[in-house]
Amino acid sequence: MQAGEEVLEKLVSETVVEIKNGDGLHMRPAMQFVDLASQFDCEITVSSGRTEADGKSIMNMSMLAATYGTRLTIKAEGPQAQEAIDALRELVEVRMFDEPPPKKNANQPQ
Amino acid sequence: MKFEEFVCFEATVPDLQSRDRDGVIAELVSSLARAKRLPAKSAAEITKAVIKRETEASTGMGKGVAIPHIKHAGVKDVVAVVGQSSSGIDFAALDEQPVYAVILLVSPLKDPDRHLQAMENVFKHLQSERFRKFLRQCRTPEMLEDLLKEADESPSW
């Protein structure tokens, strides 16, 4: 009997994040995302609603063109799914790709 | 955003003379300036800024294409130019392969969303192997213009 081996534990984790840096998901943040995503043993897909991208492919991620305020659904499947989701959420929403929020209207007094 | 809205077809360089990355960038920026899509007085500064950006992290995303880009006050809207090299250029690409097509973009300082919309279109089409193959085969500015306009019309590319 090999029943025990056939029970594959399918680990799936999903979250919705919002882009908070003013310039959005341009190429440099997309690279940061891909670099981080690639460190985890799981498949990662990112969806903007319109487009779905492989979170480990820079060509794919650049295609999302997520502007400030866009909500992205990140889905991870595999042994490190939860770790990946936690780390990616931190990168997008807490570290904001090490970039500033949108500039206030330049015409307004400081 | 469609290619037609931001690619300056008049400035296409179908046969890049430079054999190195920095030379190619200078050639493409000069071409945009000649087409009056950039202020001539800013050309040197823009070239320098693109090279600096490219040195920080290569925009050679693999599969023979690089997309160098910067923001600059000299443009009011996103403008792009395409250059091709039959011999291939070392862009320190992610896949370590030479680059045969270079799409250089200059975006305004304000309106980051517009930049993202142009990039979205570029990358959407670059996913397609067929598009990349045709892009590499363009030998004249007219062929490139036809290809990009056709891509604009058929989202399935």
Give a quick rundown of the structure.
The complex is a heterodimer of chains A (110) and B (157). Chain A is α+β, with helices and mostly antiparallel strands and 110 residues long.
Primary descriptors:
heterodimer; A: 110 residues; alpha+beta; 4-stranded antiparallel beta sheet; 4 helices; 4 strands; 31% helix; B: alpha/beta; 6 helices; 44% helix; 18% strand
What's the helix and strand layout?
The complex is a heterodimer of chains A (110) and B (157).
Chain A lengths: L2 H4 L5 E7 L8 H11 L5 E5 L4 E3 L3 H5 L8 E7 L3 H14 L16
Antiparallel strand pairs in A: 1-4, 2-3, 2-4
Helix pairs in contact in A: 2-4
Chain B lengths: L2 H4 L14 H14 L8 H14 L3 E3 L2 E2 L2 E3 L7 E11 L9 E9 L4 H15 L2 H9 L3 H13 L4
Parallel strand pairs in B: 2-5, 3-5
Antiparallel strand pairs in B: 1-2, 4-5
Helix pairs in contact in B: 2-3
